[in-house]
Amino acid sequence: MSLVTTKKMFENALNSDYAVGAFNVNNMEIIQGIVEAAQEEKAPLILQVSAGARKYAKPAYLIKLVEAAILDTGLDIALHLDHGEDFDICKKCVDDGFTSVMIDGSKHPFEENIKLTKEVVEYAHSKGVSVEAELGKLAGIEDNINVDARNATFTVPEEAAEFVAKTGVDSLAVAIGTSHGAYKFKGEPYLDFERLKEIHSLIPDTPLVLHGASTVLPEFVKKCNEFGGDIPGAQGVPEDMIRTATKYGVCKVNIDTDLRLAMTAEIRKHFVEHPADFDPRKYLGPARDAIKGMVQHKIRNVLNASNKR
Ligand SMILES: [Zn+2]
């Protein structure tokens, strides 16, 4: 039981039909809900922290909470920095004891992304830490986008191969149609599986990562809206598409929005049904259970990762 890198987890997941869930955390209840689910499901687990979460909860709190989760459950957990934007934040996290960091140089030109990623890889590897990078652009992709535009934003398979060879990165986040947030598609959801297959065939030993992979389950949006929420038209990636992606090299699936929705829906419901409650444990307890339920659902039905630890 300890903080572990993603190396072994990805080796096991690479040529299989399951993926490791990477769930974003920023407080105690979220961490506890996720960890309880992974423990019961005997699933490998990555907990990830964004720059925003570091700022919100402070790194020391998050690291100690994850250490507490390991102490309490005996699980091996990878602690990952999500979307590190420069060398400095990656170095800070490596020095703080993270076992995996993402350097997101996707907004830079190709050569610059290579240079930045390589720099992080050299430092992280010298400390035994894994590195994820990103190629292609994720945000705001619509289903009716034409092929030229797709080539400008989606990951180009030949570039992915060159990028991995030149940087020595451990895993690669690819853009094939997923996006961050609760509003992923305006029309029919679309993921470019042909592109994913081609990337996987060119770099078969590189674990691929899917960001923005929440499904935005309608029942949770409905529950939020029923109890005073206002989240119209939210739409995510259908769960069967995520399951398909795990067959073509996707080893890590990032899920954040679905946890946020599950937690918020439960708290909204509690406030409406129990207006006299003002003890935070009364609503944060059920919220923690809602996180656990969502993570269990993902591990069992989407990631296919039960009993894979
Ligand atoms: Zn992301």
TrEMBL record:
Cofactor(s) annotated in UniProt: Zn(2+)
Catalytic activity: beta-D-fructose 1,6-bisphosphate = D-glyceraldehyde 3-phosphate + dihydroxyacetone phosphate
Annotated InterPro entries: Aldolase_TIM, Class_II_FBP_aldolase, FBA_II, Fruc_bis_ald_class-2
Coiled coil: none
Gene Ontology MF term list: fructose-bisphosphate aldolase activity; zinc ion binding
GO biological process, one term: glycolytic process
Keyword field contains Metal-binding: yes
PANTHER family given in the database record: D-TAGATOSE-1,6-BISPHOSPHATE ALDOLASE, D-TAGATOSE-1,6-BISPHOSPHATE ALDOLASE SUBUNIT GATY-RELATED
NCBIfam families: cbbA, fruc_bis_ald
Function: Catalyzes the aldol condensation of dihydroxyacetone phosphate (DHAP or glycerone-phosphate) with glyceraldehyde 3-phosphate (G3P) to form fructose 1,6-bisphosphate (FBP) in gluconeogenesis and the reverse reaction in glycolysis.
The name this protein goes by in its record: Fructose-bisphosphate aldolase
